[in-house]
């Protein structure tokens, strides 16, 4: 939101009527100093924030590189057999259960 020339002129006229021509320059200087100090404090805070953020990002970046290296080392040292990667249908099928003596229930003749 920005003020146009008309709004600025109206604010100046109201301030001139309320504070008078002698007080208005003093109020302007005080307001300018306040805005300048606010901008300086805001820039200092922003610079401090960015510096702290860089200090935190460096160890995080190093940790990510270490984790990626460990992951690559683990993946290169572990090899899976081809059957594990592409199992054949025979290796997935359940074992054949026949009517052998072991699978028959124990029944006593009367």
Overview of this protein structure:
The protein is mainly alpha-helical. The chain has a domain at 7-72. It is 74% helix and 0% strand. The chain contains three helices and no strands. It has helices at residues 5-77, 82-85, 89-92. The longest helix is centred in the middle third of the chain and has 73 residues, at 5-77. It is elongated, with a radius of gyration of 41 Å. The N and C termini lie far apart (102 Å). The model has no long low-confidence stretch (mean pLDDT 80).
Provide a short characterization of the protein structure:
It is built from three helices and no strands.
Task: Name its key features.
mainly alpha, 3 helices, 74% helix, elongated, 110 residues, single chain
Fraction of residues in H or I helices: over 70%
Structural class: mainly alpha
Largest sheet: none
The global form is elongated
The ordered string of helix (H) and strand (E) elements is HHH
Distance between the termini: 102 Å
Mean pLDDT across residues? 80
SS summary, helix count: 3
Radius of gyration from CA coordinates: 41 Å
Beta content comes to under 5%
DSSP summary, beta strand count? 0
SSE diagram, text form:
Elements: H1 5-77, H2 82-85, H3 89-92
């Amino acid at each position: 939101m920005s003020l146009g020339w008309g709004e600025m002129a109206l604010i100046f006229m109201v301030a001139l009527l309320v504070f008078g021509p002698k007080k208005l320059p003093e109020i302007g200087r005080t307001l300018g100093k306040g805005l300048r100090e606010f901008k300086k404090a805001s820039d200092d805070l922003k610079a401090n924030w960015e510096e702290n953020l860089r200090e935190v990002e460096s160890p995080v970046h190093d940790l990510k590189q270490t984790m990626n290296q460990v992951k690559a080392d683990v993946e290169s040292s572990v090899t899976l057999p081809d059957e594990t990667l592409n199992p054949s249908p025979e290796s997935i099928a359940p074992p054949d259960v026949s009517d052998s003596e072991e699978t028959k229930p124990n029944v006593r003749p009367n």
